[in-house]
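Hi there, hope your week has been kind to you so far. Please have a think about how the structure follows from the sequence. I've dropped the whole record in just underneath, so have a look:

_____
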Amino acid sequence: MKANALNTRISSWGEGPVWWNDHLTYVDIQGNKLIRFHPETGDEKIWEMGQRIGFALPCESGRWIWGGDEGIFFLDVETGLSTPVLDPESDLPENRFNDAGISPDGRLFAGTISMKKITGEASLYRIDSDLDCALVIPNVTNSNGIDWSPDGRTCYYIDTPTHQVLQFDYELETGELSNQSICLSTEGRYEGSPDGMTVDAEGKLWIAFCHGGCVVRFDPENGAELAKIEVPATETTSCCFGGPKGRDLYITTGVNSKKEEEHGGKIFVIKDAGVGVEQVPFADT
């Protein structure tokens, strides 16, 4: 499978791709931007967020929920106005929200990152529809990819510096995680570190490798590599399925700070890479 550059925009650090309403929406973390892109027409809409933005995800109400330097917010996409929701780490100014995902039952799971790379300084939180916030995984350093099996009963999670994918039993009725175990380790197997992740309709994991220039498809049952996609951008950050039939894999990238790359910071696509799972919105209504 070949990854082809899809756009000309250069994001300082493209991340968090989401397929929603026939558009690819993603963030430029360092550029403080939320970007909605139509792959067929090339049309873009950009929201200036005023701070680094780690994730943005759709809500049932039509607004979006996003997280950044100063906590979690709701965005009115028509007016561009953001409303603060919560900030569980207001006492940690060197932390910010990073990657996030929405569980099959509509709960938001959002994690933080220690910008000073202090081991165990960050966390993963669960935000329910009533905006109650619960700490679910403490002692994290760089909270990254999170997704669920197609049946919703298993949650997969990456704390990047560990080079591991953890797995948990997921309780759909309560949003509880339990029975933590190591699904697979990438230590010593690949250049770079595991970053963003998506799970396909067959239950296989697609993981982007930051500093590694690739996306790898894994079997969570045994950790075996099933496919590897080379991306002509060292900072390969995340991926999601989308397109008219949900079969195209979209990949975000960032700009490498140590070398010039023609395609760093662009969006890539692999047509007919597999079959994705439809995005679930945050249950805010």
Q: What stands out?
A: The chain is about 0% helix and 50% strand. The chain has a mean pLDDT of 96. The CA atoms of residues 73 and 84 lie 4 Å apart. The first strand starts at residue 4 and ends at 5.
